[in-house]
Design a protein that fits this description.
4-stranded antiparallel beta sheet; disordered N terminus; about 0% helix; mainly beta
Length: about 200
């Protein structure tokens, strides 16, 4: 999953045809792999995450997160989150993005509409690293209350999770392509529970 890397880094788009390149002290750039050519410079942004086909990017420095059209080299939307939120990934076929605001012991997640930049849902008090299924359609979180939630990010409205259960023994949980929980790591151990 894309994360901020001090000093720079390389982040491929979902299909691997384009790369977001971060270099310390420079604006993030997007490159075409096959042609070995720069496609765009994301002016004023030090970090970037590409969508599945590499045509859009989430870009940020220390302020707001912006959605860029790589092909048109322009900002499409600015996400309506505090400047402390950082992108995790494009989700739901690229219609939405999940962002994380890390606190000292818990973090909050925001899910934003890519076209408008509006927040469509927030999930407070997340105590473990959130996970996405391989298609980025389902988000699984473990809350500080030991509640495990799976959210269907493709749903029209995100008023409530698609599935919920309580467990004080998990430090990580992962859903499959249908949103069903398939694996979890127990707290304080190296034990993996496969739930199929």
């Amino acid at each position: 999953r894309p994360r901020h890397r001090p000093g720079g880094g390389v982040r491929p788009g979902g299909d691997g045809r384009r790369l977001a390149i971060e270099m310390e002290g420079r604006d993030a750039t997007i490159w075409d792999v096959a042609g070995a050519r720069r496609l765009a410079t994301l002016d004023g942004a030090r970090h970037a995450v590409l969508d599945v086909d590499g045509h859009r990017a989430l870009a940020w420095t220390d302020g707001a997160v912006q959605v860029w059209s790589v092909d048109d080299h322009r900002v499409l939307a600015t996400l309506a989150t505090a400047s402390t939120y950082r992108p995790i990934a494009f989700v739901a076929g690229g219609r939405r993005v999940v962002l994380q605001d890390a606190g000292e012991t818990t973090r909050a997640l925001a899910i934003c509409d890519v076209d408008t930049g509006a927040i469509v849902a927030t999930i407070p008090d997340v105590s473990a690293e959130p996970t996405l299924d391989p298609r980025a359609a389902f988000l699984t979180v473990i809350l500080a209350s030991h509640r495990v939630e799976t959210w269907d990010l493709r749903a029209e409205r995100l008023d409530a999770p698609a599935a919920v259960f309580a467990s004080d023994q998990l430090q990580q949980a992962q859903s499959d392509l249908s949103g069903e929980l398939i694996a979890a790591i127990e707290k304080g151990t190296l034990s993996l529970a496969v739930l199929r």
